[in-house]
Amino acid sequence: MRQRHVFGTVFTLESAVAGLVFLVVLGLLTWVVVERRTQEASDRTERPRVEAFYVAALAAFAVFLVAWTAWQNSREPRTAVVRPLRVDVTGFQWCWTFAYPQSPAHRQVTGDCHGRSLPTLVVPAGRPVQLRLTSRDVIHSLWVPALRYKMDAFPRHVNTFTLTLDHEGRWRGRCAEFCGQRHYAMDFWIKAVPPERYDRWAHGAAAAV
Amino acid sequence: MTVAPPAARRDGAGRPVPPGSWLGWVSSTDHKRIGLLTVGTSLVLLLVFGVFALLMRTQLARPDETFLAAQAYDQLFTLHGSGMIYMVMTPFALGMGVYLVPLQIGAPGIALPRLTLLGYWLYALGALTMLAGFAAPAGAHAGGWFSYPPLADSAYSPGAGTDLWIAGVFVAVTGTILMGWAVLWTVLRRRTRGMTMLRLPVFCWAMIATCLMVIGAFPALLAALTLLAVGRADASVFLHNTWNIGYQHIFWFYGHPVVYVMFFPYLAAVAEVLAVFSGRRFFGYRGTALSLLVFAALSMSVWGHHMFATGQVANDYYSLTSIALLVPAGVEYFGMLGTLLGGRLRATTPMLFALAFLPQFLIGGLTGIMVGTPVIDYHVTDSYFVVAHLHYVLFAGSAFGLFAAVYFWFPKVTGTRLDDRMGRWHFWLLVIGTNLTFLPMFALGYLGMPRRVSTYAPFDGFGALNLLATIGAGFLAAGMAVFVVNVLATLRRCSLGRARPAGDDPWQAHTLEWATTSPPPRLNFPADRPLPPVTSFAPLLDLRRRERSGA
Fold this sequence. Notes:
The complex is a heterodimer of chains A (about 210) and B (about 550).
Chain A: H1 5-35, H2 48-75, E1 85-92, E2 95-99, E3 108-110, E4 120-124, E5 128-135, E6 140-144, E7 149-153, E8 159-164, E9 169-175, E10 188-193, H3 195-202
Parallel strand pairs in A: 1-5, 4-10
Antiparallel strand pairs in A: 1-2, 2-3, 5-8, 6-7, 6-9, 9-10
Chain B: H1 21-26, H2 31-60, H3 70-104, H4 113-132, H5 160-189, H6 202-233, H7 241-255, H8 257-261, H9 264-277, H10 285-299, H11 315-324, H12 326-341, H13 349-371, H14 374-380, H15 384-414, H16 420-447, H17 463-495, H18 539-549
Helix pairs in contact in B: 2-3, 2-4, 2-17, 3-4, 3-5, 3-6, 4-5, 5-6, 6-7, 6-9, 6-10, 9-13, 9-15, 10-12, 13-15, 13-16, 15-16, 16-17
């Protein structure tokens, strides 16, 4: 998925660093528990020079991490500068509406999220899609776990983000912000289809996509 | 007609005698009694809200389970979260401060004792009010512990349960703020001769940082709750996005510092336990004291990291301040690990809990850096990854510190130790249960399970990991049952006079509370026994050194 490749990079790096730190601390603790049962206790109360270097290293790492992840993240949106396809997404208690204002047939998909009747957000593969996200009642959050991305849907406020699905497929989307009784059922599908098929559908072709 | 006031009973010297039985407890201005009431109440509530968690884990054990209806589940997770944060971990932390700080600084009592007692009453009343929501026709509040509007307003949560929740939390947090003032004032103004600021025990430094955050950040919660109450009276308030997002800002200005209020006192209890059972002075004392203050100051600037997915905050700024926290946190680990590395360890029950705190809290801290990174947070926020992260911080971390503190100070408070064998059972069941319950949740969140769902479908593929987590919760329940039996049996032995006395200083500890009797007398230090000179932050250690060298 081109949209959030940055997640993979940053998550891998942070997991590796975290794993290393955890193993070092666990190793020290194991050594202490095994070895420091019989020796005399040390009288040393501090090691200011070691501590100063340690603090400097921690601070440097913190600055690197923030700067690097912010830079990685800011590179993302620039991959989608061509005129995107616009979809207006509205969350409500407890389902979603996907409206396509640019489609000649004024396509609009919705459902009630009961049983298997989940609405499907249809997008053309390979083309940037701009989602304009809002809510009709309380706060919801649109999450597509496979895309590693979510954004909140507020009433009377529009959040916008752009994504490009680079291959065809169908993924599950869900509501991530607790929004009342049927929050657990507020799922949808996001489906990337070949651009030609999308165009036929947008023009009102009856064929299901 | 005149009514004569009831004559107070007086002792031989003419001083009024405090009433006995329960009335003596709830009207006492003795900081030890107020501290014990607070700690005892929060331990009872820990069990109540723990049972809620067991019910939820049962519901989530299998896909499409119908053990609980969605309404019931939503009330349970709301009260579990609100209860554990507002009514258990925060009050227990301050209750420890109320009990221990005057003893550790050699003071005969707490500053502002009546205000402290009022703080306890408000806390207990608030907890009852919140729980009373279950008696409301539509049940208790069901909006999560942070209760965002507009979901929590009168249009979407019309029940009286929500009103009771707002009132209960407001009253309880007001009580907590009063206790915070009393503890801070005590440590600043009631120190004994020779107890300079840089001779304060690590625990007292942690309480200073804690109380500063309580005083600085907790009023923001009162403001947020007021806003919510206003919005429930006039539903048009939350028709504006400004107030919806504004509520989140005000709430999290409280909501992040409170995490450290629920962390520092337990961290410091662990630090004391590590130093005592390493048989040495705490290592890196000044660095740790400074890092606690830096931590507390920074904690006020990170609230936006709870709102990365709102699209309405400066994510990079809050990421910077949040990740900067790894510096003071690293300094604290430096001190604790340094203490152990040069120590001579004794594997007592409190020490086991303190040792497990280190790697377990570290998992919470390291995943905290991950969720503090916006690109990762976009995926994992509001998922089970966050549930796992916060339980590693608050349960695998703070609650282990809490139990270390209970086992460590129990002989001081009651005069006898808790049973060691049962303590070890409690410890190992808890270690297994904690990791079995919360480790799978990281994977669940990563795979796409949102938090606060009352059920999930079979084809989601969450079944196996959820079952594992529920089995872990069973271990936790067993461990807590052992703990309850241990405490009750020991208290019963105490009341029957059959307990083996622990002595004044059963652990060869470092700080002044161990220089008095167990339990300490009304004014903390017996008049016939002079306080040992305060020569450092470990005066009893210095005393033993001098005695050994014959000086």
